[in-house]
Amino acid sequence: MRLILVATAVGLLIGLFGTPLLIRTLRRHGYAQAIRNTEDGYPAHDSKRGTPSMGGLTIVGGTILGYLAAHAYVWSGPSASGLCVLFLIVGLGTVGFADDYIKIFKQRSTGLRARTKLIGQGVVSLVFAALVLGFVDDNGLTPASHAVSFVRDTPVVLPTVVFFGWVYVMVAATSNGVNLTDGLDGLATGASVMVLAAYSVIGVWQFRNACSTDLVAHCYNTRDPLDLAVLAAAMVGACFGFLWWNASPAQIFMGDTGSLALGGAMAGFALTTRTARAPASGSS
N or C end: fewer C-beta atoms under 10 angstroms in the chain? Predict the structure, then answer.
């Protein structure tokens, strides 16, 4: 539990004190997101004109520093599962950063073209899919598996090609889902905190009931569950700190840098904790 507290505290401090520094930097240079012109029947957003974007940088940064601080606290290296999910967070955050860059510096409210964004998400998700099938531990476990899962792996096993396709669908759906949710001040951040906190609890529960330590009928055969809980906790702390400045009236937007990273984190945790339900699971 101390690891989770350290990760949460460091993430919180980065989000709470790093965000106003980012706000001042962005405002000093006039880096604000272009506001899309609305037609009759849609709410106007002129009041938000001039609000800085790219706030997701503090969420991603707080997550990384909180996670690394927890490992430095016990002087241990990160796990393969944690690094795989962290890769997904940073990779999708980079795609989102490119989108925000176009919105801010080219003043094009639509950002990256839809096809380009999907290609970027696809590259990151497919690399992630390859990574989570590697790194076998002493118990023969990899960060994710081919098996269809809900609470734990089922006997239904997906071919590698289908698994890669399912990972892409998961990542694209969750990252774009959070992106669509990010339309009201504090909405995406507040909702994400609850999901990520749940994954932190799931990780601790799986760690305490792992098959490697307690071989019973309802144990969990998950690799690195405690480390996944620590990573999720670091992101919870970073989101809480950011939410202080993002709550209505928002002083900064997370932008696609934050929303894609948050959505990718949810998909990554779902796959590595074996709580991702695949389409084929209805037949199991």
Answer: N
